[in-house]
């Protein structure tokens, strides 16, 4: 850290009180603390890039979901005659093709994982107690797995002759 930067580092308590550096400049009240350095004493579990990978997944899955969902809406609602044409027979005809099965499977998996990752972030941000965070994330994981497994089974075991 350079000498100039070191002078601007404010202890946590002072940074959060809004008192700033005492220079009279109101902007000094918003000094950001430097990131913690990773050391050999840093717990192994905090050395992973999980949050960066989760952030990257959200961006990439969001782009793919936009293409999948808009394509789904365009094809089913505009090109195939609209909502009035969608029926059991319509779905049975679509899911007879592996292309549409995979299309819908990708939409299901990406939407559930994208939404669950976003909800996990909300839980991390707003659940104050560790026990509450653990239970909420556990319930989220169970709901996600249940929905993905059930949806996948429906797509691949769909029988129009029922």
From TrEMBL:
Its cofactor is heme. NCBIfam families: succ_dehyd_anc. The chain crosses the membrane at residues 53-75, 95-113, 134-158. InterPro entries: SQR/QFR_C/D, Succ_DH_anchor, SuccDH_FuR_B_TM-su. Pfam families: Sdh_cyt (PF01127). This is Succinate dehydrogenase hydrophobic membrane anchor subunit. Its main location: membrane. Keywords: Cell inner membrane, Cell membrane, Electron transport, Heme, Iron, Membrane, Metal-binding, Transmembrane, Transmembrane helix, Transport, Tricarboxylic acid cycle. It is a multi-pass membrane protein. One of its GO terms (biological process) is tricarboxylic acid cycle. Membrane-anchoring subunit of succinate dehydrogenase (SDH). Pathway: Carbohydrate metabolism; tricarboxylic acid cycle. GO terms for molecular function: electron transfer activity; heme binding; metal ion binding.
